[in-house]
Design goal:
Blueprint lengths: L1 E2 L12 E2 L15 H9 L13 H11 L28 H16 L20 H9 L61 E6 L17 E4 L7 H4 L5 E3 L8
Antiparallel strand pairs: 1-2, 3-4, 4-5
Amino acid sequence: FWMGGDPHALGAWPGRLIDLKSSLFMAAYPVTVAQFQAFIDAGGYTERWGSLWSSIGWSWKQRYNSGAGLDGPPGWESGLAPVRISNHPVKVTWYEAAAFAGWLEHLRCAGSLRLSADVPENHVIRLPDEAEREWAARYPDGRVFPWGAEYRSGFANIDETEYKDRVGPHYLRRITAVGIYPLGRQPELDLYDLSGNVAEWCLTCWDEAGYRADNAAGAGCHRVSRGGDFHNGARFARAASRTWADPDPDDQY
């Protein structure tokens, strides 16, 4: 598919032809607080699952959790973390998101997690590559938004009133439960919340010049973020818009 090439996208670049060589399966909704709580309850932040974390991610966890008696994201137990409602998307660092995906893959390999019979055995559960994330949002015709060619008011949890990019009257100023914007789903693939609510991490290291297939798990690079948050305008919600965030928590809370 042709990736990029949207001149109005955030982080616009000319784009190029990308060949995705494998079938791809994505969760219908972003990971929720309840799902991430299962990772915490299973000891995801303890030595038991230390091998699931990248070395730099584990060092970060040790630094931020050391002495706090905390087995979870910073602020999780004290209430300082972002809103923790079970059916809301969880908001965590890249290190934590990657470790969670690794935990799911471990459960799959151990036979404790059942996937659809359509998923080949040699597939791996992980964060999406940036090209895969854009392909899903723009499938099958290179569309501008996951639902079609134009932004439509009420189709995503964004700031529609942004003065430089006003597209409607709505701005909730908060995260919402996953899946409650059904008009804004990707109809061909039945994927929800690809635009707005919370931005989603990609596996890929950021390159300002455009996509590069660099998914080094242990690297301390900035990571690609897609979809935009509830407080962002419609430009962030465009399917080709791309930005970056620091894997460290300073950029996330």
